[in-house]
Amino acid sequence: MRYALEVIARERCFSGFLRLTRYRLRHSLFMGGWGPILERERMEYLNSAAAILYDATRDQVVMVEQFRIGALEHGRGAWTLEPVGGVLKTGEDASEVVRREAMEEAGCKVLDLEPIGAYHVSPGTAADRVRLFCGHVDAALVGGIHGLREEGEDTRVTVINMGQAIKELYSGRIDTSVAIIAIQWLTINRERLRVKWNRLGEYHAQPMRVRAGNSDVEAVLNS
Q1: What phi and psi, each to the nearest 5 degrees, are found at residue 169?
Q2: CB neighbours of 5 closer than 8 A, spacing ≥ 6?
Q3: Distance between CA atoms of 163 and 150, rounded to whole angstroms?
Q4: Is 151 a catalytic residue?
Q5: What DSSP assignment string belongs to 89-122?
Q6: Cβ(66)–Cβ(154) under 8 Å?
Q7: What is the pLDDT of residue 211?
Q8: Is 5 helix (H, G, I), strand (E, B) or coil?
Q9: Strand 48-55 relative to strand 129-136: parallel, antiparallel, unpaired?
Q10: Which pLDDT score, from 0 to 100, does residue 215 have?
Q11: What is the pTM of this model?
Q12: What is the separation of C-alpha 117 from the centre of its chain, rounded to a whole number of angstroms?
């Protein structure tokens, strides 16, 4: 099939924390020919990157609880439990963004990073896509309240055993798309990552014998 699209006009409706544009357009039909002219509003680019932080040794995930205006009328109110993440600015590398956000939102250093994928959040109304990762961390070193005050952030770190995190998918506590996709992916890849990242940890902990003059020196590689 040949897909075709004609944008007839664009009009900026609103520009604030969000940007809203009204489009007049038409597109090709599966049966052939062109459809009618449509008028649609779209929230413009809020591309973001997020990472589920996983301690492969302890089999725990690190998530953050924070205020979200979109959840105002639902469940526990406007506080959701999510992976760390942030908005991608033009030219920013997604992997660097999640490493930075892990420190800002959870005080957590990412030791290794594995891509999960990218997806549209709400293609019927918005142009935003999430680039999702899984980050290798030491959960014993995290906790407390974090976030950049100048950006209005107030995040509380929560460490959850992996088994409990899976249960939370069905209890309703974990109910955002980014969290659900991340936990489901981690459930499938959990054993593989435990092997990979536990071996990585063993490698970094092994002493390395080096020659210094006539004596052997034990040097430990730090992660």
Answers
A1: -60, -30
A2: 25, 26, 27, 28
A3: 36
A4: yes
A5: PTT--HHHHHHHHHHHHH----SEEEEEEEEES-
A6: yes
A7: 35
A8: strand
A9: parallel
A10: 35
A11: 0.82
A12: 10
Question: CA of 49: how far to CAs of 93, 100, 131, 163, 203, in Å?
Answer: 9, 11, 5, 25, 29
Cβ atoms of 24 and 13 closer than 8 Å: no
pLDDT exceeds cutoff 50 at 104: yes
Please name the residues in contact with 208: beta carbons below 8 A apart, sequence gap of 6 or more: 218, 219, 220, 221
The residue type of 184 is Q
**Residue 26 is which amino acid?**
R
Query: For residue 68, what pLDDT is reported?
Result: 86
User: CA triplet 47, 178, 138: central angle to 5 degrees?
Assistant: 105
With both helix axes pointing from N to C terminus, report the angle between 162-171 and 177-205 in degrees, rounded to the nearest 10: 180
Structure confidence by residue, pLDDT tens digits, 40-49: 999 998 899 9
The phi, psi pair for 140, rounded to 5°, reads -70, -15
Q: Is-contact 134 182, C-beta < 8 A?
A: yes
Type of residue found at 193: L
Q: Name the residue type at position 211.
A: R
From 41, 151, 191, 202, the catalytic residue: 151
Strand partners, 173: none
Taking the CA atoms of the chain, what radius of gyration do you get in angstroms?
22
The C-alpha atoms of residue 191 and residue 44 are separated, in whole angstroms, by 38
Q: Beta strands of the chain (E only): which ranges?
A: 5-15, 19-27, 38-43, 48-55, 60-67, 79-82, 84-87, 112-120, 129-136, 145-146, 155-161, 207-212, 215-220
Give the Cα separation of 129 and 49 in Å (integer). 8
Among the listed residues 105, 97, 87, the one whose alpha carbon sits nearest the alpha carbon of residue 157: 105
